[in-house]
Design brief:
The complex is a heterotrimer of chains A (about 350), B (about 350) and C (about 375). With about 350 residues, chain A is an alpha/beta fold. Chain A has helices spanning about 60-70, 100-105, 125-135, 140-150, 170-180, 200-215, 225-235, 250-255, 260-270, 310-315; strands at about 10-25, 30-45, 50-55, 75-80, 90, 105-110, 185-190, 220-225, 235-240, 245-250, 320, 325. The chains are: A alpha/beta (about 350), B alpha/beta (about 350), C alpha+beta (about 375).
Chain lengths: ~350, ~350, ~375
């Protein structure tokens, strides 16, 4: 394939993405409100780059990624995807059956290496399923391709007749990666791909992802809660809080000078693996608010130590404060927050 | 040198807990799994000992063995667990019946547990407060003191205040499922502290919660340790938590202690290749980004497929011929530091 | 070197497990459940009887002889003079001078020689080939043997139990098969389609479960035309049992579908572009098939008990058809019980079958998810 990547046109452009889950109450299941799991998320993803999407549990990062994959249907907004021939399609509005041609191009790596493979199917059938469904009917052709894929992710091709239960967590994660890559995807959504793995195995999988990206020119949306891991693998990082993006920036810029107090608090909370660094005090107070009933104004203001009157009333927009550095804070320019 | 924890004066007081050559086996149909295979370490009063290791290293089983909570088909095959009680008497916990009155009196009152998943530890049909009140009254009764329900309730409210639960008078009457993850873990800590134990075992207490909540819980535990001078065994796989919380570290791999020593030495002059590799392989908030991380080759072996000799040798970059045949023992490699590795000494275990 | 030997052995075990399919793993797990394994053998023997009850009978179950009523259990001896030479102790009857009842006692001096694979009454193998070979027959065709005694009409209880086993075990199996089909289809629809369909099916299940069973059986059994043949009644009873019995299974299947929809590997299949049909047939059904089998095997004893109770009450299978319930009808009055306690033996057979099914079901249930730890 001889494609010239067009860097001016992003591979994926997410605009105003929303996903609300209705809250039904009572015998008649009347809808009494909505959980605003994803509440207007905008970002772009350029070809060949890795965007890290971080946030704490319940912030909507997983829901947002599933909306992009159309594993769930978004409530609103657009997911603009640039196809191989340069057309731009809105994945958010396509009906399920018209999505079929894009399924091969956008793939997913799961968090749980034990739940994401069908335990009753051999590696050949697990990894080869997208190929079979995609029209590769010949078993020998599939066998060859699966062997090639297993080699690609560092597993022995002889393993293909084994069942997933024969493998460790790290090996299963490699199998999951092989399956995701079977259809030559362009975009891979990785949902916490290393958080269920042991420390020593985590590094192997991160290295594999980096290597594969280089070799296959993949674009990653890397969803995770571990800031160290996200920092290590991402070109750019987007931070989510209660269904919204609070900051999007190039990795170096974000970690050296975060512009949103939540990002800074998140970094401070990560325990440093060095006993000579004293524990950061002043842990973030309070709890993450419910996305069913978010606070007024800036969603973070009840927990923010820099909050002022304005923060409780006016919702700050996501705006650019430095080249490529977007943040959703009224006082981004005034604050000097410590990075990592 | 700044230390997260003030260094504990060593060898002044006798150890509170001594685990000696502990072996726990699980007899399964497929074979016997040696979950803990000759583990030894001490815990001194007021000290925070971190046990770190990957899955299957035996850290949780060791903890369960201390509390005599190893479920069948697991059993303590050999070894001793010596505990020095309030009266200075040394008790070998492995000699006590797991369900007997002595062990029940030690559990909770002397040694308390903070589990990973507090949701599972609280009953959903009783209020959190009533469960703690019951524990306080039960243990008071065991030690022959009479305590009224109202008094126990007052103690519980005080504990809730101690662990940073706001409006404790109301929260005491809520059910565990009504509390958020962070509050639930705080309530669990209050429960663990309710009988003023001398040893707390925290089994991955922050693994199930978010990083900002984790920071709150860790801060709380540090504060409580200062206040009550309780010894803590902190079990985790997170090296960051180990560095920030503990004063002494035990590194385990496949049921054996690879290395142990004061936290600063473990992080700044690790002696065992496994400790070194583990420390190198974690991405940090400071290192180079988007580069290959140094990895530990291979994967954790299947529990039925334990390597002979040193359990780490197939993955060890510095393995020698004898590592595959003989098992090195834990021997001193520095000030209060010990490693089980032939790079540092010659002795092997038969 | 002794240190490496166990490690090598470990590697072999691992390889065997590595390529073991789901059903193999289920079997390995089930095998460890000793009691379930023994029960499975018992059930296998019972179903052998179901296939050819006449082969196992010593005589025609309908053959009556008023003079040989209430003969007690004769039993069988396999050895004589240290050699394999089966015989049955003879029975001598004496009429009580006051009550004028026949009183039977074992005559220790007389043996009735019997032999394996002898000739007896004629029967059809699967209704196709005529034969007269039986597992055990009396050498003298005029000398009847009553291994488990006889009833008030002088019919042989052993042979009748063999035929009752055929009816009762078949009713259980067929009723459960029917209700499994109903349960899987309706429960699957309910769980997979959801929405209105789900609501309707769930309400139907609730309705069926809230109906008191005894009155509905009474009503349905009364509705069966009196002139139906035993075979027709038999099928009607089976259908009635399964129409009421599918609800539990339907709920179970629905629950499985709901849970599986959320599984990562099902989502992975969806994202791979699999069709709905492929997801259901390739991913979902194989995942809960073993659970369904376990649940079904736990449902069979319930069906057997239902059939037995119905027939015992005279609402189910009626004589001349034979089922365990019909046999137990003979033990309904206290007089015949006091006189002939062996008429309760069919009850023991019911207990044995129900226990065996429950144990096998338990074993299967425990083995059905080999990936759980």
């Amino acid at each position: 394939m001889s494609e010239v990547p067009l860097f001016d046109a992003p591979l994926l452009q997410v605009r105003g993405l929303q996903k609300f889950f209705p809250i039904a109450k009572g015998f008649m299941q009347r809808v009494t409100g909505h959980v605003r799991a994803v509440d207007g998320v905008d970002f772009t993803l350029n070809e060949g780059e890795t965007l890290g999407l971080v946030g704490e549990s319940g912030c909507g990062k997983t829901t947002a990624s599933r909306c992009i994959l159309r594993a769930i249907d978004p409530t609103g907004g657009q997911v603009l995807y640039r196809t191989r021939d340069g057309r731009v399609v809105d994945l958010a509005s396509l009906p399920q059956r018209e999505l079929a041609p894009f399924r091969a191009e956008i793939q997913m790596i799961f968090q749980d290496p034990f739940g994401s493979l069908n335990p009753r199917m051999t590696l050949l059938d697990n990894v080869g399923e997208p190929l079979l469904v995609g029209g590769m009917r010949s078993r020998s052709e599939r066998t060859d391709r699966v062997a090639e894929l297993l080699k690609l992710v560092g597993l022995r091709p002889e393993f293909m007749h084994r069942f997933p239960h024969a493998f460790s967590g790290g090996q299963r994660q490699r199998i999951g990666i092989a399956r995701a890559l079977s259809t030559n995807p362009r975009l891979v959504v990785a949902d916490e791909p290393v958080s269920a793995l042991d420390v020593s195995v985590q590094a192997q999988v991160l290295n594999l992802l980096l290597e594969l990206q280089e070799r296959l020119k993949l674009t990653f949306l890397f969803v995770a809660h571990d800031l160290s891991v996200v920092r290590h693998i991402s070109d750019r990082v987007a931070v989510m809080y209660v269904g919204q993006l609070v900051e999007v920036a190039p990795t170096a810029s974000l970690f050296s000078r975060p512009r949103h107090p939540y990002t800074a608090a998140l970094m401070r909370a990560v325990p440093v693996p060095d006993p000579r660094v004293p524990p950061a005090d002043g842990a973030l107070r309070g709890e993450v608010p419910s996305p069913a009933n978010p606070p007024s104004g800036c969603y973070f203001h009840p927990r923010c130590r820099f909050a002022q009157a304005k923060c409780a009333t006016e919702t700050p927009p996501l705006r650019e404060v430095a080249p490529g550095h977007m943040t959703r804070c009224h006082f981004a320019d005034e604050l000097t927050l410590a990075g990592a | 040198m700044v230390c997260a924890m003030p260094p504990i004066p060593i060898a002044i007081e006798p150890p509170l807990l001594q685990v000696k050559d502990l072996r726990v086996t699980f007899g399964l149909d497929e074979g016997v799994v040696r979950a803990v295979d000759g583990t030894s370490f001490d815990v001194r009063p007021g000290e925070v000992v971190g046990i770190v290791g990957e899955s299957g290293c035996g850290k949780s089983v060791t903890m369960r063995a201390i509390l005599q909570l190893v479920d069948r088909p697991g059993r303590i095959a050999s070894g001793t667990i010596l505990y020095r009680d309030r009266n200075g008497a040394e008790i070998n916990l492995t000699n006590l019946s797991p369900r007997g009155p002595e062990m029940r009196a030690i559990r909770g009152a002397e040694i308390a547990l903070i589990p990973q998943e507090p949701m599972a530890a609280f009953s959903p049909v009783h209020t959190v407060g009533s469960q703690i009140i019951e524990a306080i009254m039960l243990h008071a009764g065991q030690s022959g003191r009479r305590i009224t329900k109202a008094e126990a309730r007052e103690i519980t409210i005080g504990l809730f205040r101690d662990v940073g639960i706001s409006i404790p008078e109301q929260r005491i009457d809520s059910y565990s499922w009504q509390l958020s993850g962070g509050l639930r873990q705080r309530a669990m800590i209050a429960m663990a502290l309710s009988c003023q134990p001398r040893l707390l075992i925290a089994d991955e207490p922050t693994t199930a919660i978010d990083v900002t909540t984790q920071a709150q819980v860790l801060e709380l535990l540090r504060e409580l340790r200062r206040k009550y001078n309780t010894a803590i065994i902190f079990i985790t796989h997170d090296l960051g938590v180990i560095a920030q919380m503990t004063s002494y570290v035990v590194v385990m791999y496949l049921g054996r202690v690879m290395e142990q020593g004061p936290v600063d030495q473990i992080f700044h002059s690790p002696k065992h290749p496994y400790t070194r590799a583990l420390l190198r392989s974690i991405p940090s908030l400071y290192g180079e980004t988007r580069t290959a991380l140094p990895v530990i080759a291979g994967s954790l072996p299947h529990p039925f497929n334990r390597p002979a000799g040193c359990p780490f040798h197939p993955r060890c970059p510095e393995a020698m011929a004898r590592c595959a045949v003989a098992q090195p023992v834990l021997l001193p490699v520095g000030d209060n530091q010990a490693a089980a590795c032939f790079l540092h000494h010659e002795e092997a275990e038969a | 070197m002794s240190a490496t030997a166990p490690a090598a052995e470990g590697a072999v075990v691992e390889d065997r497990i590595a390529v073991a399919s789901n059903w193999k793993l289920v079997w390995w797990r089930f095998r460890r459940h000793r009691l379930a394994l023994v029960s499975a053998v018992v059930l296998a023997m019972m179903y052998a009887v179901v296939l050819a009850p006449d082969f196992f009978s010593t005589q025609n179950p309908e053959a009556t002889d008023a003079r040989q009523a209430f003969i007690p259990v004769q039993g069988i001896h396999l050895f004589h003079d240290g050699k394999l030479d089966p015989w049955v102790p003879a029975i001598a009857g004496k009429r009580h001078p006051v009550t004028l009842r026949m009183e039977w006692s074992i005559d220790p001096n007389k043996r009735v020689p019997v032999s394996f694979f002898g000739r007896g009454h004629r029967w059809y193998v699967f209704g196709l080939f005529e034969t007269n070979v039986h597992l055990l027959t009396s050498d003298d065709p005029r000398q009847r043997i009553f291994l488990l005694g006889s009833d008030r009409l002088g019919r042989d209880q052993w042979s009748r139990i063999m035929h009752g086993t055929q009816t009762s075990m078949t009713v259980g199996l067929v009723a459960v098969a029917l209700s499994t089909i109903l349960g899987v289809v309706l429960g699957g629809l309910s769980g997979y389609v959801g929405g209105k369909t789900d609501s309707v099916i769930q309400r139907l299940i609730e309705l069926l479960q809230s109906v008191p069973t005894i009155p509905i059986w009474l009503a349905l059994a009364a509705a069966l035309p009196r002139d139906w043949t035993p075979i027709q009644v038999f099928f009607a009873i089976t259908v009635i049992l399964s129409l009421i019995g599918w609800t539990t299974l339907g709920r179970e299947v629905r629950g499985r579908f709901l849970a599986l929809r959320e599984e990562d590997f099902v989502l992975a299949a969806r994202l791979a572009g699999c069709s709905r049909m492929r997801i259901i047939l390739r991913h979902m059904v194989p995942t809960f098939a073993s659970h369904i089998i376990a649940t079904a095997s736990l449902a069979i004893p319930v069906m057997i008990i239902n059939e037995t109770s119905l027939s015992f009450l005279g609402l189910g299978i009626r004589p001349p058809a034979i089922s365990w319930g019909v046999l137990l009808q003979e033990a309904q009055n206290i007089q015949s019980l006091a006189l002939a306690p062996w008429l309760l033996i069919p009850g023991l057979v019911v207990i044995l079958a129900v226990l065996a099914f429950n144990l096998v079901g338990d074993g299967l249930r425990d083995a059905s998810d080999p990936y759980s730890n």
